[in-house]
Task: structure prediction
Amino acid sequence: SFVKDLPDDKGALAICRTVIALGRSLGLEVVAEGVETVQQVETLSRRGCTQAQGYLLAKPMAGVEVLPFLKKAGWRDVLQDLAQATGHTRVMAAYLKDPFED
Result:
């Protein structure tokens, strides 16, 4: 619920910053839920959040739809667009790796 008001709500920003810092200090991965805009991605990534889910990345889908979605690789286009828009191409490069490549 705090992500939806980013980056404009200073209170939501403070809470997100604190949750990210707490998670990282405990050695946990922090996943931002409800990410819908590039501005939210920029705000979260600048504060160290490396994972997100939400309509910006993909619509909600049933479990049986996930594998075909990943194999289709349309998610790469979304991440490449985000990387270019945010200037985080180096950060996003790790996410562009093919999950089916061993």
